[in-house]
UniProtKB/TrEMBL annotation:
Keyword Membrane found: yes
Gene expressing this chain: LOC106468455
Keywords linked to the UniProt accession: Membrane, Transmembrane, Transmembrane helix
Transmembrane regions listed in the UniProt entry: 34-54, 74-94, 101-126
Localization annotation: Membrane
Gene3D superfamilies in alphabetical order: Tetraspanin (1.10.1450.10)
Native organism taxonomy: Eukaryota, Metazoa, Ecdysozoa, Arthropoda, Chelicerata
Name by which UniProt lists this protein: Tetraspanin
UniProt similarity note: Belongs to the tetraspanin (TM4SF) family.
InterPro entries (UniProt xref): Tetraspanin/Peripherin (IPR018499), Tetraspanin_animals (IPR000301), Tetraspanin_EC2_sf (IPR008952)
Length: 235
């Protein structure tokens, strides 16, 4: 007759088996920490892109007729800050094995993905609309607002200096500008910022040898479209 041998299972044996292998608690904690670290780096990247857009490109935003471009940048900033906060909550939740914090962590992750998805869709859609918007608004902004709107005047001059261009569609645009029509005593034919070598009243000559012959519209299309495309790829 075979004897039945009973092997007692102690709590120590149970704890040891649950802390071993690829499904152990320690391994899952390690994976979550790695995920949190990668998520933290992604949050820093998203936040950096948003801040760079607001700081570096805000001079040219008021040349656009809608606030979609600015809204996308602030969505990225909010998403980036939220990611950094969530990673801290995630680390605390994993370390303390706090169920409540883990639920909050999961909810915030879903919220972040939603924010970034919205920003990505806006950037993608706006990328397709930006060409038609610039064609309609850019020339009108240049010819009607220059020297009458201080912020837009500064933005136009800065754009012409930085990208070595003149006019929205061409330097001839300035001949029909409100600035020259309402100031017949003005001897300049184009703003001084159009000049290859900018000096006081250098805009009296609009010959290609004196001014840049690249149009604003082409430059703006490339800069804004590439920036929006970069945002959608990052998201």
């Amino acid at each position: 007759m075979r004897s039945l041998v009973i092997i007692p299972v102690t709590m120590a044996t149970y704890v040891r088996t649950t802390n071993e292998g690829c499904c152990s608690v320690s391994f899952l904690k390690f994976v979550l920490h790695i995920f949190n670290f990668i998520f933290f780096l992604a949050g820093c990247a998203v936040l950096g892109v948003g801040l760079w857009t607001v700081i570096d490109k805000h001079h040219y935003v008021n040349l656009l007729t809608t606030s979609t471009y600015v809204a996308t940048s602030y969505i990225l900033i909010i998403a980036g800050i939220t990611v950094l906060i969530v990673t801290v909550i995630g680390c605390i939740a994993v370390r303390q094995e706090d169920r409540c914090l883990l639920l909050i962590y999961t909810f915030l992750l879903l919220l972040i993905f939603l924010l970034e998805a919205v920003a990505g869709v806006i950037a993608y859609v706006y990328q397709e609309q930006v060409i038609s918007e610039l064609e309609i608004s850019m020339n009108g902004t240049f010819t009607s607002q220059y020297q009458f709107d201080e912020s837009r005047t500064a933005a136009i001059d800065r754009l012409q200096r930085k990208y070595k261009c003149c006019g929205a569609l061409g330097f001839e645009d300035w001949h029909y500008s409100r600035w020259l029509k309402e100031n017949p005593e003005e001897k300049r034919k184009v703003p001084d910022s159009c000049c290859k070598t900018e000096t006081l009243s250098c805009g009296v000559r609009d010959h290609p040898s004196n001014i840049h012959d690249v149009t604003h519209l082409l430059i703006s299309l490339r800069v804004v479209s590439e920036h929006l495309r970069g945002k959608s790829k990052i998201i």
